[in-house]
Amino acid sequence: MSTLISTSILIAFAVIFPLIGQGSLFPGSGEYDNIIMLRGQVATGDFTWNPQNFAGFYYDLDCDVGTEVLTAALDDGRLSESYPYGLTYQTTTQKDDFEFEDWGYYNVIGFMAEKYFAGYLDTPGSIDDILFEESEDKNVLSDEQLLKVLVDDDTEKTVTSSTPLELEDGYMLSIDSVEVDGNEVTITLFKDGTKLTTKVIYPSKDGATMADKTFIYQKDIGDSKNVVIVAAHFKNAFRGSDTDLATVDGLWQLSDTFTDVSENTGYDKMTIQTVTADTITMNNKDNDITLSRNKEIPLMGGVSIKTADADEIRYYVYKEITKPGRYELRGTVATDTSTWTADNFAGFYYDIDDNIKTEKLTATVTDGKLEQPDGVTYSTKAMVDDFDFEDWGFYNVIGFMGEKCFAGYIEGSDSEKGYLFNKSTDKSALAKGQLLKILADDDTERTITTNTPLMLMDGYRLELRSVNAEDGRVYVELFKEDKVVGSKIFQPSKENAVLSDKTYYYKKDVGDLKNVVVIAVHFKNAFRGSDQNLATVDGVWQISDSPISVTDGTSFEKLKISAITSDQISMDNKDSPITLSKNKEVALAGDIYLRTADSDSMRYCIFKEEEIKDLGIDEEETSRIPAASKKDAVVPSVLPEAKESPSAGGSIDTINRPSSYQQTANDLSGSSGEVGETGDPAQRLKTLKNMIDAGLITEEEYDAKKAEILADV
To answer: What mean pLDDT do residues 64-74 have?
Structure first.
């Protein structure tokens, strides 16, 4: 399992949104995934969130430390701005030990779902609590400020004179020199390339003390004087023939900017009311909040409230994370037999608008041990859901190992409502022992143009090629990577247009499924402009073209499918025993793990791994499923200029095509323009004839492409 960005903070469910990028995007467009929305437990009335049911709040599983509590009290669907306030928040410091335990203890506090430092603590009778001893101001909370904990780590690291130790926020520790006997080491601390301080330590001398082995850097921060914000414990140091090196086995870093927690400081809807040496309280005084449908309301810092797009009140708190890295998405912590559903483990799939939740995992514990032979059981059941673009009708959705998956299309009450059902040869994936990840289900309106294609998942993109000025016929091509895999002519803007006139679809064989629709795009309209063509898309659907096998007996790490029906899957660990000994991490299935605390008391949870990609690095697209619906997706507001070539008869403008256009589109069968599934030369010539008859290409282009096709025969 890969290194995670934080081993002490376990974070809740991820909902992914896009950044602005080239082309028109829908939620979850691969490399544009860059925000995780961490969901707390869903509420329908008054509710209290704490680190157990909202893992966005800071929590340390090993030490059972979590400090934050947020309470919502509703008054006729409203969070009152006056006493008794609708929202109250309180957080209290707790004693925690450094990961490098010899340094002693400090006060940690969660604040607005972040881990903060409140002050150093004295260890009576010890001189090893050097961070306490070397700080002039010990308690920063007494100065009504907090510092973020950036690093608290006891992993051994090797530092050399040529490979400095990289810290957070631009800080870096460098070895300048090591004396021959290794006793005296000169260390320099930099920030953003600027030298801050140089100190000498003595980690390898006989009888070395904590002061001899620890590099310390203090700084005035706000009203707090000479606070230790960087500390590094050196286990040893050596002078080599080519390079000097040392081993660091304790590392500590605080932010060098403070968070103001003085009374009456406001954070979005919340205001700090009282501050003591160990407690902060806030409420929404002067900020009335109405929980009407389909709202997202900032509360404080990165913490917000989301309400369902439904008639009844249903809501949760969430926190956004944007920093690239891998995260652990934690469920409720257990000490005995426990069951997790989407209510208390946000790693499982959940649709707040339709209140759809399908997954359940149970750990049965007796006398501190998992029941044998099947102490862990998992089940999930398909449920009916409507497409976000509702005119397409309904399908069966199923959560599987925390992923939102497609189980099958559902026949509609008429041909329009069952359009994707009717166009697919095989309707049910689950009946074939397969599931397909749902990559997009969205009805956000967005504009695409001849130069701004619709960017889809898994390397697909849909390009608007041309629009007929006389009758509004549209020609589009679907690419995967740089290869044309589908094309179609249709008329979304014609009078009395029906669903088939407005929907582009692409179907293919996926595993054992034959001709299943994997992409559908609904066009609201299309126009030929003076500079370029454009169209409005208001429905996008995409499922993976790589199936997940869910046949009886299929194993996923520790869990194996024990039963499967037309609508349900069950798994257990009957053939893979699991013990709940301390400080263990067990892969259960897919990206879902079980972790036990590094503690003598049994404490454990399940979690799911998620990742935020670094947009500055060219990485392979993540295979996880993003959230399939987000209403505020990006729509280009400035349309780039199109490049034109001479049109055929002045009625169709033909866009200069990229080199990938040299691949012939799939067959357009007859005047309907539906996608063919063959690369046969005769069919390709037929496609070409349809295109010139429709005025979509010039005679010169027709002759050139015809010659290419015949040359390949």
So the answer is: 97
